[in-house]
Each structure stands twice: as C-alpha cells, then as structure tokens.
Write a structure and sequence with these properties.
- By secondary structure, the protein is an all-alpha fold.
- It contains nine helices and two strands, in the order ααααααααββα.
- The chain has helices at 5-29, 41-68, 73-90, 99-113, 126-153, 164-192, 202-208, 215-219, 255-264; strands spanning 225-227, 252-254.
- The protein has a two-stranded parallel sheet with strand order 1-2.
- The chain is globular and about 60 Å long.
Length: 266
C-alpha cells in the first residue's frame, strides 16, 4: 500500500468541501442581519482560504496520528471534546429554550470545535479565538510528534507505509500550513470581516460588493420581526404603524439564526 497523488487530491478535495460549507454557512448568516453589510465576494474568498488552511492541517494531523496510533485516536477525541465542551459551557451560551437542549447544544459546539472555530456567545471573541487556536496548534504539535515517535520506535507496527523522514516532513508541513492559515485569518478579520458596527456609505459598499439590505426600512420602523421559526408571523405583525406603511410587510427572521449571526459577527 502506497500513498499517491490521487490520495492527496482526495484529501485536499475533502478539506475544500468542508471549508466551502463553512464559508457558505457563515455567509448565509449575514442574511439574518438585514441592516448590516453583507459578506462580499472578496471577503468570502479570503474566509474560505483561511478555513482551508486551518481545516486541512487539522485533518492531516489526525490522519497521521490515527496511522501511527490507531488505538488512541478515540481517546484523543474524547479528551479534546471534554475540554472543548467545558469551554463552551464557560462561554455562557444561551441558544436553546430548555436546559437539556442547551447542554446538547454545548456538546455539539464541542464537536464542531474539534475541527473548526466559530463564536457562540456575545461580545468580542478575540481572546477566546486566540486561546482556541493556541490549543489547536499545541495539539497539532502533539499529534505529529507522537506519530513521528511511533514510526521511529516501531515501524513494523505502522506497516511501513510512511517512513519516519516522510512523517517528519508531513508534520512540519502541517504546522507551517496551520500557521499560514492563522496569518490569513488575522488579515481577514483586520481588513475584510463585516462587523456589526459597519457604517459604510452606499457608494463604498457598492465598490466593495458589501451591500446593505433593508437599512432604510429599519430606520422607518419597518425592520424584521423575530419569530421562532420561518413560518409566517401573525397578521397584526405584518404591517407598519403609519398610513403610508399600509400593505408593506415585515419579513420574519428566525430568532435563533439571528442570534447565531449576531454572535459570529460581534
């Protein structure tokens, strides 16, 4: 059994699909903040790039560790998930309607954080993000180091598919790509991330592709109506308060999705 270029292309393709899904998800979140600037094509492309550079090394490091230490990959997942679940609880999430649902949500957040970061509570997420990526970087070093140690110690156990030198090179590339992903992410948040306080003028938004949606109606009191689902709201919630506003409809917005969007773009 050998690893060829087709296997590498499959791995990159899988990581690209995950990064694309994450990008489209967070781009769709912007639609629930109709009075704010949308995520333009340039910022979306940069966000996809940083996600690809962060997710692919994570998957590669886990694959290396599972190749060298197949009996311990599940234990690694449980230990990491427990720490991330604790951090999700400490973030004070308030997303579900019931206590049991909230604990299930935090457990799900811990599972997602095992692969990728996103903000789940209000307020600036800089320190939480720095702590998360520092943890991930240390974990990458640990996974690659243990894989290299196992291939040196017992190459017969790993099947001899990858030599110690190959594992060392792959580990170095994994860490370097993750570090470059962090740099791209810093650039994205410094220059291209549409924040909640974005007050660009329409001409500036047109030049960048970050158009507003419904800002004028928000100023006139015809903003969105929060509902618990995407079902039509009651009739009394559909029209504005003035005569000139009769017949104009407030668009219902899912309360939970709007809450997620506010947390992510805070």
């Amino acid at each position: 059994m050998t690893l060829g270029s087709s296997d590498l292309l499959k791995a990159v393709g899988s990581a690209s699909a995950i990064a694309c899904s994450v990008t489209l998800y967070h781009r769709s979140l912007r639609s629930f903040l109709t009075d704010k600037a949308k995520q333009g094509p340039v910022s979306s492309l940069l966000y996809f790039t940083c996600n690809l550079l962060l997710i692919f090394p994570r998957l590669a490091a886990l694959a290396l560790f599972a190749y060298a230490q197949p009996c311990y990959i599940f234990a690694h997942f449980l230990c990491c998930w427990a720490v991330l679940f604790f951090l999700a609880w400490r973030c004070g999430t308030d997303f579900m309607d019931s206590s049991a649902g909230e604990w299930l949500y935090r457990a799900t957040v811990g599972l997602i954080w095992y692969f990728s970061w996103f903000n789940v509570s209000a307020g600036r997420s800089v320190y939480r993000g720095v702590l998360y990526h520092a943890w991930m970087l240390l974990d990458l070093l640990l996974l690659c180091g243990l894989a290299l140690w196992q291939t040196h110690k017992a190459p017969c156990v790993t099947g001899g598919v990858l030599s110690p030198d190959t594992v060392a090179v792959m580990g170095g590339v994994v860490v370097a790509v993750y570090a470059s992903g962090l740099l791209v992410k810093v650039l994205y948040y410094q220059r291209f991330h549409p924040k909640l306080g974005d007050t660009k003028k329409p001409l500036q938004l047109a030049a960048t592709g970050d158009f507003t949606d419904g800002g004028e109606e928000e100023d006139r009191g015809l903003g969105d109506t929060e509902v618990d689902s995407m079902e039509p709201p009651p009739v009394e919630m559909l029209t504005g308060g003035g005569e000139e506003e009769v017949g104009r409809v407030k668009r219902p917005v899912n309360r939970r999705m709007k809450h997620l969007a506010q947390n992510f773009y805070s």
